[in-house]
Amino acid sequence: MDRQNGRPEGRKLQQANMFKRRFWIHLFFWALIWASLTWLEIRFNQMDFGFAAGNELIRILFYLVLVYGNIYFLIPRFLNERKLLLYGISLLALVIILTPVMVNVFYWRFQGFPELQAQVVRHQTGYYLLNFLITGAFAIFKIISDWVRAERDSRKIRTETMQSELRFLKSQINPHFLFNTLNSLYALTIRKSDLAPEIVLRLADMMRYMLYECNEKWVPLQREITYMENYLELEKLRHGEKADVHLHVQGEPGEMRVAPLLFIPFLENSFKHGLARSMDKGFVEVVLMIEPDEIHFSITNSKPAQLPHPEAARFGGIGLNNVRKRLDLLYPNAYDLQIENEPLTFRVNLQLKLPPTT
């Protein structure tokens, strides 16, 4: 892609289109205000259309100077820089300077209409008050709209960041599991074992889940359980008699939905730093308790006594910090993760409160 057709030019075109759209929206808004004020002046002051339209056009021009001078000069220069006192003084000065000009313009325009001139002089205070109220109202609208826009952009950035983080985190799921399973499958096919077809089906189901179903933010809890069952069965195959592996599910998943591959890093850790390092027979015990709006997940695995403490705090290729980061992104203030690192066992307890969106 060359520079002329690159993203910067695309952004410039988008900004130009946005400016044009805003220009026409603002023009339509002020034209509507002008038409309304003209109609009111004709209705209540019995003026002809040309004279009333000219009066209200002058009024609108002063409003434009007040409103846009405040929006595009005072607010960015003072209010956005948190110079509140300077902003207040500047806004008041803008009204105090322009209002007498506005009054004199109308006084001059109403030459030959002494009653209208007297009305302008009599209502000078009202001009000041009205101009200040109009300028302040548009300032409040500008502040609120900027805040809404900033919140929308912030949510969009957070969403994009979260999706990027989740894609990155999911990409770190231990690939060695696949290769180890394929090696075990190869050994079974050589021995012409009856287990080979079952292993192929389990592995295919896992790959389909990872490649296609995990692209969603939430997946059925039952699919996550099935994935764990397949994972554990394949690990049993790989470790053979050395592994004492159990999965206990208490409660019904029903229509519950969770983040995809949420529990897999803990399973990977239990084998990588547990059974894979133990020369003798070890164990991995997984318990999943399902309640109406909560999930209690625990996994306990044996580990050799000489396993260094810092290494025990890592999760097979993904890291404890990244696991917590993913939980923070998906379940803010809705989870409790406890790690118990004992001399011969390693235990993870995760209590998860499911948000209404799942």
- Determine the number of helices (DSSP H or I, runs of at least 4 residues): 11
Mean pLDDT: 81
Q: What string gives the helices and strands in order?
A: HHHHHHHEHEEHEEHHEE
Based on secondary structure, the structural category is alpha+beta
Q: Which oligomerization state do the chains in this entry correspond to?
A: single chain
The total domain count is 2
Radius of gyration: 35 Å
The CATH H-level homologous superfamily of the largest domain: Histidine kinase-like ATPase, C-terminal domain
- Secondary structure: helix percent: 55-70%
Principal-axes shape call? rod-shaped
**Strand portion:** 5-15%
The CATH architecture assignment of the largest domain turns out to be 2-Layer Sandwich
What separation lies between the terminal Cα atoms? Answer: 41 Å
CATH topology of the largest domain: Heat Shock Protein 90
Provide the low-confidence segments as ranges: 1-6, 308-318
What is the class of the largest domain in the CATH system?
Alpha Beta
Give the beta-strand count: 7
Key traits:
two-stranded antiparallel sheet, 358 residues
Topology:
Blueprint: H1 7-45, H2 49-79, H3 84-109, H4 114-122, H5 124-171, H6 176-190, H7 195-211, E1 219-220, H8 221-239, E2 243-250, E3 257-258, H9 264-275, E4 282-290, E5 294-302, H10 309-312, H11 320-330, E6 335-341, E7 345-353
Parallel strand pairs: 2-4
Antiparallel strand pairs: 1-3, 4-5, 5-7, 6-7
Helix pairs in contact: 1-2, 2-3, 2-5, 3-4, 3-5, 5-11, 6-7, 6-8, 7-8, 8-9
Structural notes for this entry:
This protein is an alpha+beta fold. It folds into 2 domains: 7-156, no CATH class; 172-353, 2-Layer Sandwich (Heat Shock Protein 90). Helices cover 65% and strands 13% of the residues. It has 11 helices and 7 strands. The strands form 2 sheets. It has a 5-stranded mixed beta sheet with strand order 2-4-5-7-6, with helices on one face. Strands 1-3 form a two-stranded antiparallel sheet. It is rod-shaped. Residues 1-6 and 308-318 have low confidence and may be disordered.
